[in-house]
Specification:
The complex is a heterotrimer of chains A (265), B (220) and C (217). Chain A is of the alpha/beta class and 265 residues long. Chain A has one domain: P-loop containing nucleotide triphosphate hydrolases (Rossmann fold, 3-Layer(aba) Sandwich). Chain A has helices at 3-7, 63-70, 93-102, 118-129, 134-147, 163-175, 193-208, 220-226, 244-249, 254-263; strands spanning 23-34, 37-48, 52-57, 78-83, 86-87, 103-106, 181-185, 212-216, 229-234, 237-242. In chain A, the strands form 2 sheets. Chain A has a 6-stranded mixed β-sheet, with helices on both faces. In chain A, helix 6 runs parallel beside helix 7. Chain B has one domain: Orthogonal Bundle (MetI-like fold). Chain B has helices spanning 8-11, 14-48, 51-65, 69-79, 89-114, 118-126, 131-161, 173-184, 187-217. In chain B, helix 2 runs antiparallel to helix 3 and helix 4 (69-79) crosses helix 5 (89-114). The N and C termini of chain B lie far apart (57 Å). By secondary structure, chain C is mostly helical. Chain C is built from 8 helices and no strands. Chain C has a single domain (6-216), classed as MetI-like fold (Orthogonal Bundle), CATH 1.10.3720.10. Helix content of chain C is 82%, strand content 0%. Chain C starts with 5 loop residues before the first helix and ends with a helix. The longest helix of chain C is centred in the N-terminal third of the chain and has 38 residues, at 6-43. The chains are: A alpha/beta (265), B mainly alpha (220), C mainly alpha (217). Chain B binds chain C through residues 1, 3, 62-63, 65-72, 74-75, 78-83, 156, 160-164, 167, 174, 177, 187-188, 191-192, 194-196, 198-199, 202-203, and chain C through 58-59, 62-68, 70-71, 74-75, 78-80, 152, 156-157, 159-160, 162-163, 170, 173-174, 177, 182-188, 190-191, 194-195, 198-199, 202.
Amino acid sequence: MSAIAESTVGAALATPHTQVGAPIIRITALRKSYGDNEVLKGIDLDVKRGEVIAIIGKSGSGKSTLLRCINGLEVFQEGSLTVDGKPLLYESAMAMRELRQRVGMIFQSFNLFPHLSVGRNVMLAPQLVKKKGSAENATRARQLLERVGLAEKFDAMPDQLSGGQQQRVAIARALAMDPAVMLCDEITSALDPELVGEVLRVVESLANEGMTLLMVTHEMNFARKVADRVIFMHQGRVHEMGSPEALFGQPRTAELKQFLSSLHD
Amino acid sequence: MLIELDFWPVLAQWPLLLRGAGWTLVLTAIAALLGMTLGIACAWSRVNGPRVLRWGAGAYVELIRNTPFIVQLFFIFFGLPAAGIKLSPFTASVLAMVVNLGAYAAEIIRAGIEATPRGQFEAAQSLALSRMQTFLHVVLPPALKKVWPALVSQITIVMLGSAVCGQISTEELSYAANLIQSRNFRAFEAYILGTLMYLVLAIAVRRLLNWAGPRFVFGR
Amino acid sequence: MIEFTLWDIVRNLALAARWTVVLSLIAFVGGGLVGLLLLVLRLSGRAPVNRVIGAYVQLFQGTPLLMQLFLLYFGIALFGIDTSAWMAAGVALTLYASAYLAEIWRGCVEAIPRGQWEASKSLALSFGQQLRHIILPQALRIAVPPTVGFLVQVIKGTALASVIGFVELTKAGGMIANVTYEPLLVYGCVALMYFVLCFPVSLYARTLERKLHVGHR
């Protein structure tokens, strides 16, 4: 299984080493449980390069857990998961770090490093992991902060920023590693309603630029607008999957109908 | 290198060790009872007392918390006789432990008292309870409940500290270990067994107090 | 017989107090280094290692420091090494301090939100980088007040070294009390000197604690 993996260690992210059109993430029969409680009951999912996927569902349906399996924050027990053709190897810290350089993650609670300035937050991982020179690193960090509309906050500390600004810094921080895939775990759920828009606009621009995105979200309008494919998860399974038009327009299963109508209450 | 350990000569003296452990527990029990009472009184003084008392209690707490127990013990046992107060080793040990625990308990209990919500005082006042009644029946029980784990730790610490009392020939556990090693020269073995017995006592006392607290001290 | 004035007593005690300070610093610094090592081992999270370190901490926190001193004093001798009171006291207090500090610091590390571990992991930082750049700097901030507070406990702990014959403040006090026949005065002075050493440290720890809480809101 490792023929592809071996030949591509250290390959640049920008150059796809699997065939064009082949899935960048392939999840097969994945199962995960906490003790006796099985939270993912056999997930199959292929994600194409550049695809934008929205994952919806009730809390406890396993959608966040699935996302966290993809970059190895959660350990699954059965099945397989490959990113860029490379299987997840929990035993190898090296392989996991290799993987995480390709997969960026943005969290519900931002998780900025409170003791570092905004600029240092963005520059830390490239400096430590990619051994980037400091001048080049700083230039790149400023570019990224400008891109999320926060160029002037380079020297600010995280606790001086609003939630929306913090989340945009978190996006810049993840982008600084040049990931091939970005995972967004309910990234607007902790925000005041008036701050949601500024974050979603940044995500949308990422989608438009061809970033592969997997997002767990409660923003159905956003999912409808940006996603290529929507996945409805229910009780640890992919219950329904399809284009936003199909899923939101003609839900096939009773569970999805119920879920969608519950959102309008 | 092979170190030969021989525990039998020490184990043969088990009645001495047991008696020592017994005295350690007696010391601890008396100190816990009186020390907590003293601590409650000081905590009350520091929160509600008149100014002189408040200041006096504060000075006592700081003085004790910033000096070693062994010096407190020596001051009482060797120093006080010069002022005409002659105490037996046992009495001196108990006194030192009570004074020591009292200061720490005062700080711990005060923290619990200060966390009492204002509404509690107001409710008690509107029920026409006196200040003392309010303190004893409304403020103290929940405060003790809140800080009980810290008090249990402190009582355990005082018990372990009481090993020093052997130095003025109070016949507690460390004294017993000392006595045994002076008889058979198995110092290391004697102290290992003594130390392990302290460990067991510490765990047992902690368990006992955690069990007893809700039943006898502050109600459930 | 030599006449001792109050000044003589205080001067001699102050000279001995130097050794109390030196021993405290050795134990505090040595204990800090060993404690940090234990902390890192514990955080890297192998279950058997954790159990061993947990037992180590329990052993030192659950037994009298005096007995630990005796054990070290006689234990080192068993290895055929010539034990001095210096060495036994230094080693025992270092181990004692390491157990307490490892436990205090573990509490501080556990107070850092899980999201900080996850975010830094997601950025492909190695375990060592996570500790060094993300977790420890934040834990350090909340660890300072209790660590300074523990220094008081170490200073008081060194008084027990007198029992195995180490001449520091308490031991010197005993010796002076014996020749002057003024135990009340001498032990009073000894207590006062410990107070002078410890009280400023206690106050400082409390100030730090208060500042930390204000800064947090």
